[in-house]
Amino acid sequence: MxxxxxxxxxHRGKYMLSFxxxxxxxxxxSSQIPTSEMAKVIxxxxxIPIILFLSVKWSKNKSIWELSDEEVLxxxxxxxxxxxxxxxxxxxxxxxxxGNLYVFHLKKKSPKRYWRNKLFSSDxxxxxxxxxxxxxxxxxxxx
Length: 143
What we know:
It contains three helices and nine strands; from the N terminus they run ββααββββββαβ. The protein is of the alpha+beta class. The chain is elongated, with a radius of gyration of 19 Å. The protein folds into two domains: 3-10 and 61-142, Pleckstrin-homology domain (PH domain)/Phosphotyrosine-binding domain (PTB) (PH-domain like, Roll); 12-59, no CATH class. Helix 1 (12-31) packs antiparallel against helix 2 (37-59). The strands form two sheets. A five-stranded mixed β-sheet has the order 2-8-7-6-9. A four-stranded antiparallel β-sheet has the order 1-3-4-5, with helices on one face.
């Protein structure tokens, strides 16, 4: 039985690079403002939500997850990842403040990670994916 789920994922590398680059840029710009240090810190604190919003917006990478009895397919706009159920040792869903980190622990390879985003995003099929994985033959842990 094939099931399909739309998940809001982020490109983690692009997100981290844009977040820290924008934070550094904001710090450099605020250091050039001729005002007290306290005012500069407050300026930086008020720019963090804007930086977070822009970083999430630039690194969105929507994905379609297809779950069948034999494999898990994850489709991104530019690539697809395929995991055979027989190659998966277990899957962990680690809840984070900004979403979930899905970790595929494979039997013979290093783990693969996918970051699900819930910040500044519409609802996705995460809850349905969770229930489908709970009812599937693959070992699934929600932490």
